[in-house]
């Protein structure tokens, strides 16, 4: 789960965004709200630093919509982990 932190220096900003978002989701499933929030913040910073014209073509699908969808799933998992599943 620490993949995002270990490769961020060598990853493009868009790839780092995706890795941080996956990390946030995993941490959320573990119920670690503080680390989830840190990973979400890192994903947002990486996304803001991205320059689409300098990213590989295969990362072109990574838009605000994709990012917010991924982060939303993670944040929902944080809520479910702390309150239990919806009834």
UniProtKB/TrEMBL annotation:
What domain of life? Bacteria
What name is this protein filed under? Uncharacterized protein
